[in-house]
Amino acid sequence: MEREPAAAEEPRPPGRRRRRRRRREGRTRTVRSNLLPPPGAEDPAAGAAKGERRRRVCAQHLADNRLKTTKYTLLSFLPKNLFEQFHRLANVYFVFIALLNFVPAVNAFQPGLALAPVLFILAVTAFKDLWEDYSRHRSDHEINHLGCLVFSREEKKYVNRFWKEIRVGDFVRLRCNEIIPADILLLSSSDPDGLCHIETANLDGETNLKRRQVVRGFSELVSEFNPLTFTSIIECEKPNNDLTRFRGCIIHDNGKKAGLYKENLLLRGCTIRNTEAVVGIVIYAGHETKALLNNSGPRYKRSQLERQMNCDVLWCVLLLVCMSLFSAVGHGLWVRRYQDKKSLFDVPESDGSALSPVTAAVYSFLTMIIVLQVLIPISLYVSIEIVKVCQVYFINQDMELYDEETDSQLQCRALNITEDLGQIQYIFSDKTGTLTENKMVFRRCTVSGIEYSHDANAQRLARYQEADSEEEEVMPRGGLASQRGSIGSHQSIRMMHRSQSTKSHRRTGSRAEAKRASMLSKHTAFSSPMEKDITPDPKLLEKVSECDRCLSVARHKEHPLAHLSPELSDVFDFFIALTICNTVVVTSPDQPRQKVRVRFELKSPVKTIEDFLRRFTPSRLTSGCSSIGSLATSKSNHKSGSSFLSSLSSDSTLLRLEDKLSQPTTAIASNGYSSQAGKELELRYEAESPDEAALVYAAKAYNCALVDRLHDQVSVELPHLGRLTFELLHTLGFDSIRKRMSVVIRHPITDEINVYTKGADSVVMDLLLPCSSDDARGRHQKKIRSKTQNFLNMYAVEGLRTLCIAKRVLSKEEYACWLQSHLEAESSVDNREELLFQSAIRLETNLHLLGATGIEDRLQEGVPETIAKLRQAGLQIWVLTGDKQETAINIAHACKLLDHEEEVITVNAESQEACAALLDQCLRYVQSRGLHSSPEKTESKVSVGFSPLCPTPTSTASNPSPSLVIDGRSLAYALEKNLEDKFLFLAKQCRSVLCCRSTPLQKSMVVKLVRSKLKAMTLAIGDGANDVSMIQVADVGVGISGQEGMQAVMASDFAVPRFRYLERLLIVHGHWCYSRLANMVLYFFYKNTMFVGLLFWFQFYCGFSASAMIDQWYLIFFNLLFSSLPQLVTGVLDKDVPAHVLLTKPQLYRSGQNMEEYRPQTFWLNMVDAAFQSLVCFFIPYLAYYNSDVDLFTWGTPITAIALFTFLLHLGIETRTWTWLNWITCGFSILLFFAVALIYNASCAACYPPSNPYWTMQTLLGDPLFYLTCLIAPVTALLPRLFFKALQGSLFPTPLQLGRRSASKRLNIPKETFAQGCLEGDLRTEHSVGRTTSSSDCTSQASWHTQQPAYSPEASGGRSVVDNSVPLRDDTVLEGLSAQSPGSSTWGAAVPEGCPEESKVKSTSAGRVAPLSSLFNLPNFSSINWISSLSLVSGLGSQFADGQAGRGFPVQAPSGRAGLKGTDHGLLLGAPSRGHS
Amino acid sequence: MAMNYNSKDEVDGGPPCAPGGTAKSRRPDNTAFKQQRLPAWQPILTAGTVLPTFFIIGLIFIPIGIGIFVTSNNIREIEIDYTGTEPSSPCNKCLSPDVTPCFCTINFTLEKSFEGNVFMYYGLSNFYQNHRRYVKSRDDSQLNGDSSALLNPSKECEPYRRNEDKPIAPCGAIANSMFNDTLELFLIGNDSSPTPITLKKKGIAWWTDKNVKFRNPPGGETLEERFKGTTKPVNWLNPVYMLDSDPDNNGFINEDFIVWMRTAALPTFRKLYRLIERKSDLHPTLPAGRYYLNITYNYPVHSFDGRKRMILSTISWMGGKNPFLGIAYIAIGSISFLLGVVLLVINHKYRNSSNTADITI
User: Fold this and answer.
1) Membrane spanning segments where (chain B) (predicted)?
2) What are the tens digits of pLDDT across the range A254-268?
3) Residue A596: helix, strand or coil by DSSP?
4) Minimal CB count within 10 Å: which of A152, A372, B33, B284?
5) Which of A430, A857, A1136, A1169 is catalytic?
6) In sequence order, which residues have a C-beta less than 8 Å from that of residue A49 and are 6 or more positions away?
7) What percent of chain A is helix, strand and coil (3-state, nearest 5)?
8) CB within 8 Å: B3 and A1264
């Protein structure tokens, strides 16, 4: 991006307004104010006009803010575009062939004509590029002409300028909600703390606000920032694309330096929020901004089918060369034969000498290549592009892939891999946010060893879940008070709604509801009612209010907290920690936050720093620390004013507190619960992560509400205690290595310095203060810890995300020492991050455990069903998650990835050798399965509450393959070169694989491994930045446009709003795209081979002279014009199996995985058929015209027509769905051919040598022989194909054909019959539900049959019944299957295989029943029940509850659908969408 | 630049829609086309569904085939090979290039009389008129009477473009190799003197060729003047303006020439030579009897193993004699019928299973 060499800057004239210097060696950029007159310049006023001009002159070599994304200019378009197009090998080839035509000795066509198709293709592509470029230009123009306020030196004020006029070094003033035009260093903010909030949604899609800070040294300015006085020089990095990093320093006039960090930079494309106005200096502009440097264009991937196709194109090339060689040799021999025979037809060279056989052969070879060039289809690539664009269009347009809640549809970001969707074999999925909603809900917590189960809360969540599953989210909105109330009231409300609204009503109601909720929460992430409304545990609530009361009474005493029992003080601290240990910003919903800031006096920074240090530092440290303090204007320094004040005495804090309470805006009755509830609505928490939001909302439910967060203080509101303002000394942000975050605060009541730490249990537990087992207190602590650990494990088993909350009280001395080093770290420029990291680690030790929380990440709607469907479709699903093993396993159970009765192989190894041994052992086990060798003995480290997951080898041989769970460390070993094969082999045997604790890099390595070693098609789906690498590595990357930003989406090929849309995307669209494209490509090859075959056979009758009987026009335009449209329409619209059948029978997807439509043998079979057809189409006219007076082209034209008819008929056989478009295009093709032929043949009497087809077509149309050959040849050519197709369709139908057949059968059923059948199915389902509570699908299905007589009296069971009600039963069974499958885990797999209504199969399926039903006698079932009873029906820990809910569901569903849509079609379309549980 | 578009969208597109009550939704249109629900016919290829097609093909093709076969069989056709390679042949003497001009006579007998118009063809075998370089070797502009092309023929005509610095008219290999035997037909009646059969020279070429495509060059009173400055093709005996005495059949518009210039599709071909028009309804055009063919043997085919034939043929609505097409129709029709029967059997046998079978993978 370095456009401007340093040397070019040297001779710059004085008087320039803008200056920017880069040092080549320093790798930095220096920015100065544009307003400054350069040193030694003439009078600025005199130079102003000149400067203005200069500015313009200099403009070309400055990186201004003009956005130019266009590739071409008017002049450069043609050469540049052509150059780009010739990068494609195919284009070069075709141009080469066309140019070959210009050589007289070998030319086959008129040279100009031969260029036509190439030019046509090039022109179409060029036009497309031009159009794209033009639209880019237009949008660039629009963006360039956005306005913003820039400080003008002439007018001494901010004036409106276009974005494109902004230069580096300009001062820009931005107001609230404005979009930032360039990368700007924040110099001033209207916020008294020098803060500014930006929303980076445009950059990374994250909707939460991010805080930016004014550059140190500018925030302390008393008066408004004046750009004219800005004389500092900024040195910073060269432009780079790292959004998360920015380093530099600002050098003031007095030589002082201050560091610049990411927090000081406002990035282009972001929006200013919550801040009235900011001023900054432009550092990077235009294309040097980080936003634009980050913006890479769309990706180009080549699909597998295309790769295969390219391989076949090479075969075609080989074939072409062979044909040409054969022909050349033939011609050589032919020439030699007639060489000396003075044959009249042998034309000598132009000089009269006879052509030598070798020369003739060479010429013939080249000419043959020209003539047979059709074999390499020039239009293939263009057609495929067109078809793919249309496919993408249709995928985008699919209503079923539209998510109402987020108002987003599926986005196809990669245009050329649609068909890969139909061939996926492995799915690699992220867990959080992908399988789950990433809506964190506070579920339960434990404080000082006591567990608060939050049963009411669990019930509340269960209701949400239920509501979700029945798609009737009719929770009363706004009725927060009622939700807070008893469960009973809830129940009644719900019941009322249920009784009032019909099903259809409910559905639409829920949709609207969801929409409204999403609209309302649009501006605040993670704040859906479900996340917000937490029902507190009564016991804990009681304790909290007790604390509150006690403290309110005791706060004026000496040691207020001492009046509390240790437990209560832990409870209090726990909630304080929940409330303040985060980075949540509080806003009010309507307007940008108006900060009401009470300042007692103006602070003078330097003085307070000294005061501060003097107060906190022991005297011996004073000198050292103060020197550091004065040097560094650290962030903690400028808040020290207030800290100084507050630290004067605790009374003053209270004074201030009361002062604040008197402020009208913040006046809240400190004791008013009701008024607080009223105010609650106005508070909005903008959190960076959903966990934080969940915890803050949880604390709020316990009346411990975060009401305000400023840069240096946090206010918490308690009912009795009123508002407590904590002085925020430091925030040590979360990072993935420490896995925790901390805040350092000064407690307003105790005046102590506290550290609150919140983090993953694994790390926090290790950082606890070691407690001696000697004294009682220590023992108690130990007990608490072990209890907490137990609870944590239990939470994990339930699938909750656990966080530990801990606290540390710092003495002032400790703090001062730490502060010293911390300030050092903060002010260091070089390895600041590293130092800060070390500093944080130093602080977070010797913690006191307060408690732990369990946060539930709910499964997304429809995930288990989707996974079941994808499984049936033969897809292997691997979950790669960073979560801990227990959590991951539980989520896997919840989403039916793991089954309770199936074995789980757990690989947790500590070392490379152990891992190798373990893998060997597992392999042996897998291979010799049936033996009861439990793999769990392979040092499974999981011990607590994990027993139900351990393999309980069932006695049956039909045991499904086991699942593999591997943790991150073992994965690292397993991915080593020497183990990866073993690992893969093991993984291949397993039904599903779960990788826990895996890093983003490991994720991508796993994907890469599977992709390269197993040669499998892989799909990676994820939603967060940690999935990006995996998404990029996979063949198909899918991003979930969820809550966690757009990084995954940016990297993805397809972006879906929800995981469940994957089902339709793959099973329906993927299948269609693959089948369409595969068929089209095959057809293309067939078509070209057949056409070329005609020419080749003719060579035997023209002395291999490369003569063509088909007129050159037809030859050249045949592919392009006459036969292209129908195949395009078929390629875009053909549906081999309707969508509803694909969805009900996902196993049809396997045809794509196995590449059934387009295999090498299919290709060659296709080629053989093409050869046969060309033989027929050549020899029928040959024999019909043998020894007649027909001339060359009058004979060739019928052959062309025959070929056209054959192509269309062939396409007709291959087309599975005939819409009016197919008919029209076929008719159009024929008409076009004849119209063109007639016009062409009438246009010129002496043109178009050598064919000179004047009046040929017209003559032919009067010749009966023409019609007779045109009738018989195509029919004969296609007779075998039709016959074999019919034979195969009858005798060995493929699953796809059967699926089609069942679909068409259904369509033939009269409506009322169907309705009846549906009803019957309902009743039967109802019955089966009533009857079977613990049976497998097969038995319940069997039960329908046995119950059928009740509804059809003539049916007496057995075969005759089956025959009588074939269509009915077919449907009802299908209905039944799909109704059942959501609730079934094992059944889903068993259904399609084992349970067709064939009686013979039934017997085999009956065999399956036994083990499945015996499942319920297994010992582990009780433990499963135990889990589900713990979590109630939360859905995460209990799929059995799910199963039962799902079972109950079909009772209502079909009738609801019947009410919605009267047609059978609609019913069937609706079928897959029901049954979300 | 997606993010910039996005930002713009949000700024411009977002708020104005909101007050309208119905915010602009990205929901796709629910049209049959966009949702791929166009009404469609979805044929399924099984024995049951396809067999009617086979029967229909059979039922249509067999009658057509029989019709064609009968028509073709009714066509009278006689072929006389007069290459003279056999020593017994009267034309054997003409094989030697020394004898010029060479005349020979071949006797033949018509077993049955030829009714209606009779077409007289000359047929050549092993003559590659479809050779690529041969086909190209002509100048249509010259033949169309373009005067500039007349004097400066197309390069495609090489090496038959110029001869002794004069442009050849008509140029090119095709013209150069024009068939130049003369055939005369005589009926040997019961009385001694044979009666010559009137052979019509005109009307053997396509009307468009004769009137549109081929034109003599303009200017000049006589044809000779019009072709002034050109020379005859190398192999020709006479220049182009001396092909015939009839001015309407001379020069480029000589029909024998036009016919020759329409290059044959296959190495074995025939070209229309003369018409024998029916004189009256009462008498057959060529009554059965003995005939003899007088040949002026000029055209050398022996050197490249070619053969020359004279063909007399009547025609029907579908052109000349063509046994193949009728047989083909009958054969394909029968096969199709047979396959239909096979499918019927299969359908009968497997219908139950195919109807009830569902997907069983």
Assistant:
1) 44-70, 324-346
2) 778 888 888 888 888
3) coil
4) B33
5) A430
6) none
7) 55, 15, 30
8) no
